[in-house]
Amino acid sequence: MKVLTIPCLLLISMLTFASLAGASPADKAFVTTSKQHYSNATKSILNLSADGKLTRTKYNTIYIPIKDIFAKQVDSLTWDNTKKLATITNQGKQLLINLSGKSITASENQIILPSEWVSIVNGRVSLNSYVLTFIFDRYADEYNDTEQVAAERAQWESQLSFLNIDWTDGLADKEHYMHVNVVFK
C-alpha cells in the first residue's frame, strides 16, 4: 500500500501544479493520448443533449466554442478582453481559460485549463474536442490506458464535475468529422 501511495501522491501534486501553472509537456501528452482514442479527424460536430433537447452544430475545426458547449448549462460564462481570460462559473466554482500566454494563479474555487487544450478560432474561445470527449468519456474505464493516463483523466473529470457533464462519447466518420456527444445532467 505504501509503495502505491507515494507515487500516487506525487502524481496528484504534479497534476495540481500543472493545472495551476497552465501549460506543461504532460498537457500536450494528454491531447495526444485523447486524440489516439478517437481518430485523425480535422473537423467536429457537437451533439449536445440537455433538458431533453438535442442540438447539433458543425465546425470546420477540431475546436468547439465553449459558448456553444456551456452557455445554457452554467451560471455564467465571461470573457475579459484585457486579461485574455474566459471564466466559466457554476455551483460556486470557476474554470479559467487563460489565453494571455502569461502565468496566472488559481484560488481555492478555481481551476485553470491547460493552454494546450484551448484556442481562439474565428474570434471565439474554443476547446479541443478530443480532450472534452476523453475527460468525460463514458467508456474511458474500458480503454487500455496506462495507470498514469487513467488517473489524470479521472482527476480532470472529478475537478470539472461542477460543469454538470454527465458523459460524453466520440465517434469519427469517414468525412473526417469527430462527432462529440455531450450529455448534461
Supply the key terms:
185 residues; alpha+beta; four-stranded mixed sheet; 5 helices; 11 strands; 35% strand; globular; disordered N terminus
Please write out the topology.
Elements: H1 2-21, H2 25-36, E1 43-50, E2 53-59, E3 63-65, H3 66-70, E4 76-80, E5 85-90, E6 93-98, E7 110-113, E8 118-121, E9 124-128, H4 129-135, H5 147-159, E10 165-172, E11 177-184
Parallel strand pairs: 1-11, 6-7
Antiparallel strand pairs: 1-2, 3-9, 4-5, 5-6, 8-9, 10-11
Helix pairs in contact: 2-4
Molecular structure report:
The chain has 185 residues and is an alpha+beta fold. It has helices at residues 2-21, 25-36, 66-70, 129-135, 147-159; strands at 43-50, 53-59, 63-65, 76-80, 85-90, 93-98, 110-113, 118-121, 124-128, 165-172, 177-184. Strand 4 (76-80) and strand 5 form a beta hairpin. Helix 2 crosses helix 4. The radius of gyration is 16 Å and the shape is globular. 31% of the residues are buried.
Taken in chain order, the helices and strands follow as HHEEEHEEEEEEHHEE
Largest sheet: 4 strands, mixed
Annotation field: number of helices? 5
Structural class: alpha+beta
C-alpha termini separation: 35 Å
Going across the major beta sheet, what is the strand order? Answer: 2-1-11-10
Briefly say what this structure is.
The protein is α+β, with helices and mostly antiparallel strands and 185 residues long. The chain is built from 5 helices and 11 strands.
